[in-house]
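Posting here for the record, re: zinc ion.
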Amino acid sequence: MSSDASLREWNWSQKGRHTWNFYPSISARRKSELQISRKMTQALTGHGRNKVSLFRFGQAEDPFCGRDGVTEQTWDHLTNSCQLFEQERSRLIRKVMLTGERWPPDARVLVGRFIEPFSTFINSMDFDLL
Ligand SMILES: [Zn+2]
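Prediction output follows.
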């Protein structure tokens, strides 16, 4: 994605509360060393391929995670607690908890202090499982 496209995506997506949780201001976003992949964009904006978004646009029969059938499949669920990615998430949780942080940490902490293991985790997620 070009930097212009990234900026447009940001300008559009910052209206979403989900992204706001990660980056309270565009200057905070610029300071981050985040490498934006397609998966990271989806995780940070909360849009894209999760059941809550698909359901909202009439592309899924319900908003629930296929793993347990009762939890709404939001990006918060997928990144913080979904059992589908337990193994991939374990390295990230270990890194976070070794510093004395609780799991899950505040979203801003994740993209701040833990951006490297966080983006590794997000990019390791197999979206075909969703
Ligand atoms: Zn789940």
